[in-house]
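Cytochrome c oxidase subunit 9, mitochondrial
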Amino acid sequence: MAATTIRPITGMLRRGLMLDLGISLGLGFVMANAYWYGYHVPRTNARDNFYKKLEEERAARIGA
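Tokens:
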């Protein structure tokens, strides 16, 4: 039986783990920003504008 040389796999797990963590954290950051600035902030501004308009109408109605 001939001896075959097998490359050691030391360090591959660490590199793979760091790559996976880097990609997942990067994608998580991108998706969080997409949600925050693409959905949350515009909805919050729309809500604030609605209540501001409502308050201005109420103030005009009572003459304050």
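The helical segments are 12-62.
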